[in-house]
Amino acid sequence: MPATLITFLMALAFCAVHVFVGRLHWLDRTPRSKWLSFAGGVAVGYVFLHIMPELGAHAGTFERATGLPAQLAEALVYTLSLAGLALFYGLERALSASRDTRKQAEGRDRPHHPVFWLHIAASALLMVMIAYLLNHREDQTPAGLVLFFAAMMLHFVTADFGTRTHHPEIYDARGRWVLAGATLVGWLLGVLVGLPQIAIGGLFAFVAGGIVLLVLKEELPEERKSYFLPFLGGVVLYAALVLGEQWSVA
């Protein structure tokens, strides 16, 4: 099967998560669903076993492309990652503050519409980048692509579920279609537009920071009453798969 068709099917699967996450009613309960904690564990495993090493690889790309000293090139890559984390942290804080303000003023447990749409727009931008990277990743092996796809699928379940809880009416009416459309746009750009390696490295670094923040935001807050053992199971399973892949290649 052609690689482009495989990544297109993966992009469609991402779209399915955006569109149908609202139907996963068994996830919407307190204490937090064990499956969400498991998905969070897999996503954390992805952060440490794929994102961190790939950031190091992209630092080498920055060094070769710019001629900068190795330490400065590495610092630039991690600064881009920090920018992604800071952007999504700011958006999450804005959502929370808007939700609290509206609850006190109107008795509605919803953020103001412009704030929620700003969050959707940022999430759509992140989706464009992630879908683009389906066709332009540092690790181009089939196993690496499958692990990336699996980790992102589970991450989108937790991230979309969290986004939808802020304003399910807007998310179900229009927000989910914006995210699905952004996914297909990103995949199409990945097929039609080939960026320089330094630009791809910058995209990945920015995406990495956003993913790190969203993973930790969804799994760690105390009020969510997360389950440790399913979370640990997700971490261990993903680590075992990655180590198995590396062992087979060695």
UniProtKB/TrEMBL annotation:
Highest taxon, organism lineage: Bacteria
Signal peptide bounds: none
Assigned keywords, A-Z: Membrane, Transmembrane, Transmembrane helix
Record keyword Hydrolase present: no
Transmembrane parts of this sequence: 6-24, 36-55, 75-95, 115-134, 146-163, 175-192, 198-216, 228-249
Official protein name in the record: ZIP Zinc transporter
Organism: Qipengyuania vulgaris
